[in-house]
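Cast an eye over this sequence plus tokens and explain the fold to me:
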Amino acid sequence: MNVIQDQLLAISGRLERPSGVPANALASLRVFLSASLIQQNPGALPIQPDSGVDAVINEAAAKGAVLAAKLAETATRVRVLRDCYVNPAVTPERPTHVFGPFVDADGSLVQFAVFESARFLTVQLTLPAPFPLVTEALMLLPAESSSNDGNRTFSIPPGTVWLRARFVIGNTPGYVGLRVKNGTLKIDRAAQPRPGNSIGVTTRSQWSLALEPEQPPEPDGNGSDANGLTVRLPERFDVLSTGVSQVNGRIVISGFGSDLEFPDTLGAPFADADSITFPYNAGDALWSIDGNLSSAAQLTGECRVISAAWTLPLNKLPLNTFGEAVHGGSLRLRLRDGLESRMRGAASTFTWFDTILTANGPGCFTRRSTSSVLGAQRN
């Protein structure tokens, strides 16, 4: 048996499609799985049909080989992430496809997210002439970014920007990413064209990056908590080559409990394993809620807002796998005491003593200190 067929069986051979999931979901998933496995194991080609393997696996392997060849034409990398359907992991990138839920052999509900790399204009840090060797990729800009003044100023169109995180907070590994409405990169000397869709900026150059984060969509009032939510992110995010960064503009949440607005930033940003946080002054704010639209769980109570912040995700995967960022950043609140929830059909309530509320483009999520999650995603 070919290694691709073997791994396809191991990953998806015991999955079952429950009622309500599209009939072609499992077959489509297997094609992407096959293409991903082929990219990881190119020596496995060609793949011959195996009479000892189910026909659906043979078909998926064959279609995966065709898809892998098509992706290779544009140097697109694909990876597939298996996750818990009830509580999926937060990722810095936006999946191009999500398949599931499926029932696994142990009875758990799982889903699979497909991530595809995107095309970018790569800004590379180089040593000064006469030896312009690349030291690292400084940032990835939307591929359509352009300059009209000899590569000293670049206009950034709507899309995704990834920036070396150490220029926001020193010694932070990985890249910080966000979707932007527009932006501008200014350099004190002309960037040099380099092979591929890339430019070189010397390590001695002074540069500034000004970005307008993409705002979450307006509420459409279709009856869900997420679709009734209004979130406003900062108006501008500036980063300098000296390692100084600045956030301007208020953050706001309304339409889910009482309305909250935080106009002023507070102190320096800080990093954890998965994100960079830009603190805001929470003052003595209180947040309250008296029921919500979700039929799965109802929230009630009044809490103190211990902290408020705008956060951006960190991506530490190989650079050639980077896709589109998932959003323009998140509004994150830490709430203390006073919040209760009742799950549908439950006789008693749960008390949330320490709660993290996160709101962004995809929706809103509340997390207890015990790591259980209640969430609502936009349709």
Q: What stands out?
A: The chain is about 10% helix and 45% strand. Confidence is low (pLDDT under 50) at residues 370-379. The first strand starts at residue 78 and ends at 84. The radius of gyration is 23 Å.
